[in-house]
Amino acid sequence: MTLLVISPDYASHLLPLATLATAWRDAGERVVVATGPATDGIVRSFGFERVDLQLGKGSNPGVIRAEQQPAGEDDALRGFFAATRRGMIETLAFQAEARLSDLMWQPVPTARAVQRVVAEVAPDEIIVDHLAFSARLALTAASIRHADVVLGHPTALPVAGEVYGYPATWPAAFAPDAADLTALRQLCERVSDSFTAEWNAALAALAALAPALPPSVSAFEEHGDLLLYNYPAELSEPARTALLPPHAFLGSAVRDEPLDPEVEEWLASSDEPFVYVSFGSFLSVRSDVLARVAAALAGVGVRAALALGSADRSELGELPASWLVREFLPQVRLLQAAAARGGAAVTHGGNNSVTEAMTAGVPLVVLPFSTDQFAGAAALERAGFAEVLDPNAASVGELAGALARVLGPVWAGGEPAARLSALSASLRASGGAERARAAVREWVAAAR
To answer: In a 3-state reduction of DSSP, which class is residue 437?
Structure first.
């Protein structure tokens, strides 16, 4: 049996997809990953085969920097980073405007390349990143059955009147103006109409493969034959879950990490609680926010493990010698250790960070910047698993207060802590990889 995994050339997308595929690998089956060259090392680290497939102009092997992107992509990244400094509405509007031109890179040639890969690999099963729109277009046009993995918050696939790019909900720390929200929704609706027209034009160009296929009414609502949500079902609102197409919640895709001697030595140097800090591969560029977080941590008097990413360390001021500070840190290991010691984590609210923290049982301070991070942070806030602040507005004192609350005895002895512990136990008892393979096998068997 052969599983084909289709992923953009971005580490943040490939890592969870590859982790899910380990269930096939561990069962002795062949796993082939179709992606670009930047993430070749990640593919090989999992022991998978790679076939070359370029799904977009940009790439990210682990930490993204504007100056390392192709011409045009670099300016787009700088524009995005600048928008995050202006706020929630401005960032979402910038991303919506960008989607008018960058969601499907060369859709017809890319779709044909995907179809060639499928023909060459001849897979028995296919899982594809939901945001790999050109790849899903190719599979849809050729009526190739596939499982579609939603790696972000479930609202990445809109249902029941939701509009892609417009937050279905957001945390209490954000109070956007009603007129600004109306303008943002209108923009997102225009983007949705434009994207649907682009999807249908590409579908028509590929019509020889599926001449009877009707045009899409809303391309952002298109999905694979089976939906796999890399997200805990326990955090999804029941009323919304009832509206979803055939699906399975995987919980999380927590990967194995190689032993890091420096990290182990740091962990062995003290058994006191510590806070893990990471803004992921993109948003670590916000050195100004990391500097305030660092000052708050120093004020609270707690050790920190800080993943710098692309941040400029010189902008963070003098950091305590007892901290672990590196560009890249083993997130899964540090979250597990933080949970065992009554620690916490500070995050931008990306899907990998959130799901891995929930699996470890770590309370969070979330500073959402963009996309579905707002909806994800709101879900954590509702559950009582996180303190959520506006990254642009939160003062050092407010950050210190939030940290003190998630590290304090009230949190540790409270009802949300007990529920987070139960969620963690459930996610650890049945991993996302095993859930994914079981769901795909059940779906394939039912289709026979």
So the answer is: helix
How confident is the model over 96-108, as pLDDT tens digits? 998 877 678 889 9
Check residue 165 and give left, alpha or beta (phi > 0: left; psi -120 to 50: alpha): left
Task: Express each pLDDT in 4-35 by its tens digit.
Answer: 999 999 988 999 999 999 999 999 999 999 99
* CA distance linking residue 369 with residue 279, whole number of Å: 10
Report d(CA 141, CA 135) in Å as an integer.
Answer: 10
DSSP-assigned letter for residue 147: E
Predicted model pTM? 0.92
List, for residues 351-386, the tens digit of each pLDDT value: 999 999 999 999 999 999 999 999 999 999 999 999
From the list 54, 174, 46, the residue with the least C-alpha distance to 106 is 54
How far apart (Å, rounded) are the C-alpha atoms in residues 236 and 156? Answer: 13
Residues 185, 401: contact at Cβ < 8 Å?
no
Query: Which of these, 49, 56, 47, lies nearest to 13 by C-alpha position?
Result: 56
Instruction: Report the amino acid identity of residue 395.
Output: S
For the chain, domains (ranges, CATH) are 2-253+431-447 (3.40.50.2000), 261-429 (3.40.50.2000)
The C-alpha atoms of residue 445 and residue 246 are separated, in whole angstroms, by 15
Please tell me the predicted confidence (pLDDT) of residue 358.
97
Inter-residue contact 366 to 380 (CB < 8 Å): yes
pLDDT of 51 above 90: yes
d(C-alpha 85, C-alpha 90), whole Å: 9
Supply 178's token pair: 């009603």
To which H or E segment does residue 202 belong?
helix 178-205
- Residue 65: pLDDT band by 50, 70, 90 thresholds? very low
As beta bridge partners, residue 347 has 278, 366
CB 108 within 8 A of CB 206: yes
Strands 364-366 and 344-347: parallel
- SS3 of the chain: helix, strand, coil, percent, to 5: 50, 10, 35
Cα separation of 306 and 325, whole Å? Answer: 5
CA distances to 107, 119, 127, 132, 219 from 114, rounded to whole Å, are 10, 9, 13, 11, 19
Residue 278 per-residue DSSP state: E
- Decide: residue 160, CB within 10 A, 0-12 exposed, 13-18 middle, 19+ buried: exposed
The pLDDT value recorded for residue 209 is 57
Specify the higher pLDDT residue, 326 or 212: 326
